[in-house]
């Protein structure tokens, strides 16, 4: 049975903070008076559309930049690469901004280089909605079309407390009539219970019964923990970190270079430094090394 750290909602975390929000495309570009004088409104609209479609967030979200080659990386919900914007740091000279694309695995010659425009740990219906509303396209990537189990919509099995997920892709919020337990194989189609789980997923029963119904692998628990990791005591964060790592690994094979992995590893190292209790420190060390040293 998969290891399970019980999710417990902190009462001071509001429902609003748990609800996920779509990431946004780069901020609109504004023409200076000088540009407006020289460019017709049609041409400006065309330029704006080109920028809005192809620009990457830069300056920590305060700006946008266009990169000729970088614009050619397509989106995938299971990408083969990730990007980094570097400005005047490392090998990038002062005053220059570069987009660096790192492959997440060995790529074949001619294979498409894809990056994810949104965080990957979301169910199909939410990823599609974020891409449609934030980037104006319908995602037809291999993950969206494969119809595999909806691993991010994960509930607590009423029989064994294992992870219970819809066995196929879900294209609309709450549109599942069946859940299957990964541990005991239970098939759950009790309408009343499914209704209660759907309400818990929408956080309608927040802080009362929801935490007993959503499995730690559920995307709302995942993102709530990820967002608040730096606000919980180091010892607690070290208990949560392997759970986040385990949840994410269900989506894709272990990739040491993935940015999320780097984020978790950094957080583990910081927590290790913070814990003071000797016994806790030994445990913290093994968690941190487990994440940092993973291959
Ligand atoms: Zn997709
Ligand atoms: Zn079960």
Automatic annotation (TrEMBL):
InterPro entries: H3K4_H4K5_MeTrfase, SET_dom, SET_dom_sf. Residues 1-33 are annotated as: Disordered. Residues 53-117 form the SET domain. Transmembrane segments: none annotated. This is Selenocysteine insertion sequence-binding protein 2. It comes from Durusdinium trenchii.
């Amino acid at each position: 049975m998969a290891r399970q750290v019980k999710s417990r909602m902190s009462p001071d975390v509001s429902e609003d903070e748990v609800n996920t929000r779509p990431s946004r495309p780069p901020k609109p570009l504004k023409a200076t008076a000088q540009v407006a004088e020289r460019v017709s409104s049609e041409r400006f609209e065309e330029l704006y559309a080109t920028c809005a479609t192809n620009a990457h967030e830069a300056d920590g979200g305060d700006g946008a930049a266009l990169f000729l080659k970088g614009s050619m990386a397509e989106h995938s919900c299971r990408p083969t690469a990730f990007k980094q914007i570097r400005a005047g740091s490392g090998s990038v000279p002062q005053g220059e901004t570069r987009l660096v694309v790192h492959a997440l695995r060995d790529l074949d010659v001619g294979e498409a280089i894809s990056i994810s425009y949104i965080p990957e740990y979301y169910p199909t219906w939410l990823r599609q909605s974020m891409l449609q509303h934030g980037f104006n396209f319908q995602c037809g990537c291999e993950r969206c079309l494969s119809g595999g189990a909806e691993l991010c919509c994960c509930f607590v099995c009423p029989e064994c407390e294992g992870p219970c997920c819809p066995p196929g892709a879900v294209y609309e919020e709450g549109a599942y009539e069946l859940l299957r337990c990964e541990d005991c194989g239970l098939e759950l189609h009790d309408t009343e219970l499914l209704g209660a789980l759907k309400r818990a997923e929408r956080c309608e029963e927040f802080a009362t019964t929801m935490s007993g119904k959503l499995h730690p692998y559920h995307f709302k628990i995942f993102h709530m923990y990820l967002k608040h990791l730096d606000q919980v005591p180091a010892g607690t964060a070290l208990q949560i970190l392997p759970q986040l790592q385990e949840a994410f690994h269900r989506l894709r094979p272990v990739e040491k270079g993935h940015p999320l992995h780097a984020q978790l590893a950094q957080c583990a190292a910081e927590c290790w430094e913070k814990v003071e209790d000797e016994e806790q420190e030994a445990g913290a060390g093994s968690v941190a090394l487990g994440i940092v040293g993973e291959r």
